[in-house]
Fold these 2 entries.
Entry 1:
Amino acid sequence: MSTTAISQRPVVLGADFKRYWALSWTLATTEFKLRFYGSVLGYAWTLVRPFALFGVLYIVFAEIAKLGEGIKGFPAYILISMVLFQFFKAVVDGCLTSLLNRENLLRKMHFPRLVIPTTVVLSSLFELTLTLAAVFIFLFISGIFPTAGWLELIPLAALLTVFATGLGLLFSVLFVRFRDIAPIWDVVGQMLFYASPILYVASMVPEDFRQLYMLNPIAVVLTQMRHAVIDSGAPTAADEIGSGALLLIPIGFVLVTFALGLWAFVREAPKVAENL
Amino acid sequence: MRIEHLSKSFRLPHQRYSTLKERMLHPFRSTTFDVLEAVKDVSVEIGEGEFFGIVGRNGSGKSTLLKCLAGIYRTDTGAAEVRGRLSPFIELGVGFNPDLTARENVTINAIMLGLSRKQAAERFDEIIAFAELEEFLDLKLKNYSSGMHVRLAFSVAVQADADVLLIDEVLAVGDAAFQQKCFEQFERMKREGKTIVLVTHDMSAVRRFCHRAMLLERGEMLGIDSPDAIARRYNELNFGRLIHSQTEGERFGDHALAEIKEAWFEDARGARIKSLAQGQRCTMCMQVRFHADLDDPIFAFNLINEPRHTVFATTSEWSDGPSGHFAAGETVTVRVAFDNWLAPMRYTITPSVARAGMGADALDLREDLASVIVHGTRATGGIADVPHEYSIDRA
């Protein structure tokens, strides 16, 4: 036999990238499919959640509290921001419990450990794509039509994905050791929702704090999204934070988070099977 | 496949802090833990095409060793190296999802075992045919019987087509027909020259398939030997540890003239034993002390099995004739040696001493004074496995 001896130990990614990908993809698609099994309306349910929440929040904040006075396309802004934030939250939440949920696989099968969080990210991305399709229809109805700027959504969503994945990887291995990561993240996630420009726009934040405020990568993504998709007259993320160079700080923060998450995962994942 | 000085231990904390609060409340209390050495310094080289057995009692570290081989656990020291593709069956049907159909589960499982999507699709028909589940392809798995479930899982595992298979106790499940199928499959894989490592308690499977076997006990490797030798040692290990709740039965006779002090079993070398392997020579012994002068007393043994049948009885009178004169104060040991062809089971002996003459009345008779466990690798259903030869003559 020509194959070389392979030393057996738990692997994070493994030498065989194709297998990692095939496994992640298959698990993600079936997980996604399963979500619609047994429910009559299937796809509709994925839409009901963001749209219903959007309806409530819109009425409270835009109609009653009159937060969005004079902001062009404010309902559309709330909707997309919310969908993006829910995607972010779904990835982190999903990753957090993923290792524990797949315990029986981890303890009995040899496969790249990174498959498990990857599955969560992939299936959340599928859901985001489907939801955005419905959101776009909403945009056409409210009179906002596609421009070349919409393409910016792809790198923006990518940045958000990297951020969420980094946090998710970090939390997933921490959760195996400390179960109270879950309630802590619950609170922090809630705070993050209000600390991000979802029900308001970044320009409403007092100027003194705005630079600091824009260090939040989610604020950067949503502000840039507003400029690119909703209203090309609105300030870009670079405008809000002060300069393009300063944008490197939140972006760097995302990359550091991702690196930290990956480092923690690579370090801890091989031990996970026995610590679960 | 090569395993070099592989060790694995687990920490078992006495009190596990799984929340930050607990940790903060007891900042100075160090987490104490026991170290459980599940596998200690195991080395073995398994050649290509070898069928290798790993046996051991519960908790001896077999499954941990297998999980280290499969790369599920990290090893503390040492290494396991495998050439070729490895497919572990630690448990069948891991990752089967009850809400999916057989078709989808097979695909997922096959990919998990290392096939590509294309290979999985190509082998799909074979897998289903082997499991004999053609009619139930699009049924959700939750509607499967547990037997169907296992059949499907086994078929996928077999078709994963690895060079090296690690099998952990999969034979324990399934009905007789399915087990037969598993056995046939093992035979086939053996013929195809696959390397197979089988973890099991089933000594007949070890003897039937394995070229060599390893015996583990409390994480330590007790030896690597032929399946027969290992099966025998395994049985010794198992039964040697059985607690002998030796309840002596009733005692007859007044034992005033002669008294049976004790009884025991010996092996061929004269060592006292509590268990012995079928086919070995063994000796029943009793020690008798005389309190008065006696001529030609009769010594007798009754060997009784678990269902309380006297399997074998002998007296010195029948076999040996008059025993001679014994003086008061004398102590003798009476031995009866025989080749042990008894069925595997627990046996007790009832030794007795009687006065010579018709209607011999017992001086001392002690029921079930000693016991021994006979272990073998096959239960034939007979009460004894008498050595025999077959011949078939055609007219």
Entry 2:
Amino acid sequence: MDIKVLGTGCANCKATIALIGQVAQAKGVAVQLGKVQELRDIMGYGVMSTPGVVVNGKVVHAGGVPSREKIEQWFTAGG
Amino acid sequence: MSTLTSSLQRWPTRRPVLFLVLAAAVWWGLYQTLLPGSEALVAALPVDRASRLGGALQFFLYDTPKVLMLLTGVVFVMGMINSYFTPERTRALLAGRSEGVANVMAAALGIVTPFCSCSAVPLFIGFVQAGVPLGVTFSFLISAPMVNEVALTLLFGMFGWKVALLYLGLGLGVAIAAGWVIGRLKMEAWLEDWVRDMPRTSARFEDAGTTLADRIQGGFAAVREIVGKVWPYILGGIALGALIHGYVPEDFMASFMGKDAWWSVPLAVLMGVPMYTNAAGVIPIVQALLAKGAALGTVLAFMMSVIALSLPEMIILRKVLKLRLIATFVGVVASGILLVGFVFNAVL
């Protein structure tokens, strides 16, 4: 499962990465967790509010730290 | 987690309307007990109510829960409203509209659209890509951080509805006027090249199908995030206010922040630029200034300057705007704020 977190490095972006990492560990799922910090690349996904999350190439979240439940849904849905 | 606690946590989701009605009733009931409650508490303590300590204590015991309750209520409701006005919807509402009307809409939408300052740049670019005029985007960018529900609630809770309304009106005014002026200046050429080269996108978007229960969850999340982050500042601000209320002599500040010192407004605006705090952090300062004789216009100007003209945000915006456009932005907004300060001091 490939997950990218889009953000310029503010506290919310870091919190999002940490949370996704925790959920991945709890579920025992292997993830490729990456950060996209260059604005040009972030805009390439069409995201307007950061932090944004891209799972397997699709934007699943934008704006604010996603809730734990939402993150867990991504793991059960695909990957 | 036991099934009882988890089903207790789930019921607002299953019965959203019931939850909202009950929550409003409980909130209102609790709110009414605050004033008598604080007086009763002070009466029970070994303190003379008429003394400075007694006065300060009552002020603190009344104001703290009052402001926190107001804030929780407002942030929750705004959290729900925000779920309607996503940046995507806001963009769709603004794309391609003619200026003037669009500036007003943008400033108004800035109040209800959720906005984190780190999103300023992606948002800006997203708007530009979808054909929202530059000046309109700026109106939004100015109003969103400045005219926010936390600032308004705190002003209302601590200084009364008139001050809050004034801040709202003037904040919108500055956002609309500044955005419109920037639009007239036709500065599209001063966007960084790579921004102008970005592909055009459509402003259309799909409604995500959020339910009322989802919006309630959004409200909870907003309260956890905002009130959770901001309450120490509020406590500090009210404690400071209580101390001033009880102990600092009148007109202490009037000498350098009062109406007669014409340079107080420019000074206030200047002081605001390198400072950046969230809306709550600036309130203790506002409290101290206002309570002891500083002119209202000067204080409002200071508050707007701290929030709207933040050095960190300028640094972030530098990635998308050439220096001349940033300078223009700062200049126009600062002028607007200065005008607000001066006019206010003159009129009141």
